[in-house]
């Protein structure tokens, strides 16, 4: 296989590019620094009939120990520009950067995203959020690349956002950039709220060991972490993987865990919660390379 892509690599171990620090090699790997490079890489994969996948910060994913038999595209296109109350940002832009830059300009709306380890693209695709708000509430338009490699601009309604979900996630479309609409507010008040949200995450979430963030979406009945805690599963280990004792919805890589360790632990959690509460938990994380 010969891609017409500058600087692509072969057999690159993916674990270092994920927050869980787990994952085997990508058959092909490229880092894209601009949206033009991003589009070209996807279209080259399509032209060669090669599976492709995108990594941003590498959170909210679990990559197989076997790796990914396709082209892994690492999104580092991170240009952004503020115009009045709007910000246009590329998919690889760090979400925390946008939170802080908005706050410094006295623009409100992104405070809820403080501490979410994601690029803008990943946050838009998964409609990332917290108890306060979610991405759909600040999005005006999203530029995507569809499964045919065609570039399109979607309105927020066309994105079909729902809890931790979107059209892009369901139809395997690539987020290239987005326009966010914020509101003017008190800079001091906004910064204080951002600080408060960062502080809460540091107190209530597992940050000492590698993890993928929350493993499960919250069911209607109760928070997934609370169900796992009530089931007495906190601290349970399989291999190098462990259910966090700080937050039940976090599985951590405590000691050189494999993806198989984590999969087995997730399976135990789902079975236990189904048996005890007749609730089916559904993963928030994306599985890569398990086909």
TrEMBL record:
Residues 21-185 form the FAD-binding PCMH-type domain. GO terms for biological process: cell division; cell wall organization; peptidoglycan biosynthetic process; regulation of cell shape. The active site is at 164, 214 (proton donor), 284. The keyword Cell wall biogenesis/degradation applies. Keywords: Cell cycle, Cell division, Cell shape, Cell wall biogenesis/degradation, Cytoplasm, FAD, Flavoprotein, NADP, Oxidoreductase, Peptidoglycan synthesis. It catalyses: UDP-N-acetyl-alpha-D-muramate + NADP(+) = UDP-N-acetyl-3-O-(1-carboxyvinyl)-alpha-D-glucosamine + NADPH + H(+). Transmembrane segments: none annotated. The keyword DNA-binding does not apply. Its EC number is 1.3.1.98. It is found in: Cytoplasm. Its main location: cytoplasm. Its cofactor is FAD. Pfam families: FAD_binding_4, MurB_C. GO terms for molecular function: FAD binding; UDP-N-acetylmuramate dehydrogenase activity. GO terms for cellular component: cytosol. Pathway: Cell wall biogenesis; peptidoglycan biosynthesis. PANTHER family: UDP-N-ACETYLENOLPYRUVOYLGLUCOSAMINE REDUCTASE. Cell wall formation. Belongs to the MurB family. This is UDP-N-acetylenolpyruvoylglucosamine reductase. The gene is murB.
């Amino acid at each position: 296989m010969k891609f017409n892509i500058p600087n692509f690599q072969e057999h690159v171990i993916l674990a270092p590019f994920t927050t869980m620090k787990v994952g085997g090699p990508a058959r092909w790997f490229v880092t894209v620094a601009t949206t033009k490079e991003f589009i070209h890489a996807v279209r080259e994969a399509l032209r060669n009939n090669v599976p492709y996948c995108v990594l941003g910060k590498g959170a909210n994913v679990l990559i197989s120990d076997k790796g990914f038999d396709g082209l892994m595209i690492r999104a580092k296109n991170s240009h952004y520009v503020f115009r009045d109350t709007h910000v246009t940002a590329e998919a690889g832009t760090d979400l925390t950067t946008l939170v802080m830059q908005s706050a410094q300009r006295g623009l409100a709306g992104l405070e809820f995203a403080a501490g979410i380890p994601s690029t803008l693209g990943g946050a838009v695709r998964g409609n990332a959020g917290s108890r306060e708000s979610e991405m759909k509430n600040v999005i005006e338009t999203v530029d995507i690349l569809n499964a045919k490699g065609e570039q399109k601009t979607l309105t927020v309604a066309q994105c079909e956002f729902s809890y931790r979900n979107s059209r892009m996630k369901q139809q395997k479309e690539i987020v290239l950039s987005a326009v966010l609409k914020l509101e003017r507010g008190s800079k001091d008040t906004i910064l204080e709220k951002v600080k408060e949200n960062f502080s809460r995450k540091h107190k209530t979430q597992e940050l000492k060991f590698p993890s993928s963030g929350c493993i499960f979406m919250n069911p209607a009945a109760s928070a997934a972490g609370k169900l796992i805690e009530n089931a007495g599963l906190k601290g349970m280990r399989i291999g190098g993987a462990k259910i966090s004792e700080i937050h039940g919805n976090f599985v951590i890589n405590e000691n050189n865990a494999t993806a198989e360790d984590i999969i087995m632990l997730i399976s135990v959690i789902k079975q236990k919660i189904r048996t005890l509460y007749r609730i089916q938990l559904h993963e928030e994380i994306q599985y890569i390379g398990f086909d």
